[in-house]
Amino acid sequence: MLGDNIGILAQKPLTLTKKRLRWLILLSSFPLFGMVTAFGIAPDTSPEDIPIEEVILGLDLPEILPASDENMTFWRQESIQRGDTIGTLLSRLEVNSHDAANFLRDTRDIKVMHQLVAGKIVHVQTTTAGELRLLRYFLGGSEQLVIEKSDGVFKVSGQAAKLETHIQMKSGVINSSLFAAVDSAGVPDSVATQIVDILASDIDFHRDLRKGDRFTVVYDSLYGNGEPARAGRVLAVEFINQGTPHRAVYFEAENGESGYYAPDGKSLRKAFLRSPLEFSRISSGFSHARFHPVLKTWRAHRGIDYAAPTGTRVKAAADGIVEFAGWQGGYGNVVILQHRGQYSTVYGHLSKFAKGLGKGQRVSQSDIIGYVGATGMATGPHLHYEFRFNGIQRDPLRVAMPVANPVASRSMAAFYESTKPLMARLDMLRGTSLAFLD
Ligand SMILES: [Zn+2]
């Protein structure tokens, strides 16, 4: 890991010896991260397992070359609250105090900025360092005030109102359910669904979520006339599940190959999904006693039960071929899929099968194969899921799964270049929210 990072840095005009580099990393890391550095890096490893030196080194890329992030800007938005001043507003928007002061000075004569209307929305474009580039104040309808910094001075630059893409960042803490958390963070459902899909090989969102889990997501958002038109693609996400951070970034290589990868370029797509049950507003929520997973240990039960309302969609956990789709004793309506490498998966108690599903049919991972029900020996609607190897039930958590290809080594430089600012942003938001929680 050290070798890789140095290799990347060496391509920059900066010349630093390893020793000096290390000190710079230490110095630049501490003010922002303080005691949270231990969580810093190896996202798929528990913090206790990481040698301390590696933890510190892992923080270098975002911290050591702030200059290279200058062209990467982010949008933030806030609605004006009763009693807001320009100062309180800019501070909530994380504009640094230097630019906030200059903004106040330069907009002294712009009346409308001194009569902020509660409920109206203000967007700012800032660098990762909180430098203010542009502010949009949406006054209603298509009316908006655009104040842009040029040569260090903030000036009214006009009123544009076409559809544009903003990079949005949101963080949330899970108190009752993922959807409650995304709602209160103002994250659209389509983004929540993407988060679940992106991390589907690492986190079983039906069973693994705990109160206190946190997420930060960076995504494209399309705006027209100051109103969010629709959410676009998730660019980066961090999900801290039961204390373990999982990170993913979107990357498209020159040859067009794209996907979500761990910060080190490993693919996040695994051969099997962690949960074959579609995650949705109704099927989610560990706080709802009614939908709480049926509590049985795997050892006694040889399978996993997911309580969910009848009709919830069931997905193929992996690419495979339908070996059986029909009635089988206590399983009721059951689908058995055969996968590569002697693996098979079983989906029991279904209310119905996907249209046209039959023996011999080929399915792809995440294809809908049936719907939750209570057929066979079931006391209530739930999915009984089994994972078998050589015909014997196994605990899927204990079996090492094949993973999709990582970023090609010739694309790694481009990968780090394009994902570094996103990582920096995740680091920054994590630092902020932890400081707040402390
Ligand atoms: Zn069961």
The hetero compounds bound to this protein are: zinc ion
Which fold name fills CATH's third level, the topology of the largest domain? Answer: Nuclear Transport Factor 2, Chain: A
How far apart lie the N and C ends?
31 Å
CATH class of the largest domain: Alpha Beta
Sheet with the most strands?
A: 7 strands, antiparallel
Give the strand tally.
20
The total domain count is 4
Structural class computed from helices and strand pairing: alpha+beta
Radius of gyration: 25 Å
Give the mean pLDDT: 76
Strand-residue proportion: 25-35%
Residues in helix, %: 10-25%
Tertiary shape: elongated
Order of helices and strands: HHHHEHHEEEEEHHEEEEHEEEEEEEEEEH
CATH architecture of the largest domain: Roll
Structure description:
By secondary structure, the chain is an alpha+beta fold. It has four domains: 9-42, no CATH class; 72-160, Nuclear Transport Factor 2, Chain: A; 162-269 and 405-438, Roll (Nuclear Transport Factor 2, Chain: A); 281-394, Glucose Permease (Domain IIA) (Distorted Sandwich), CATH 2.70.70.10. Helices cover 23% and strands 31% of the residues. The chain has ten helices and 20 strands. The strands form four sheets. Strands 11, 13, 14, 15, 17, 19 and 20 form a seven-stranded antiparallel sheet that branches. It has a five-stranded antiparallel sheet with strand order 1-2-3-4-5. β9 and β10 (258-261) form a beta hairpin. The longest helix is centred in the C-terminal third of the chain and has 26 residues, at 412-437. Mean pLDDT is 76; it is low at 1-68, 285-299 and 433-438. Zinc ion is lined by residues 301, 303, 305, 384.
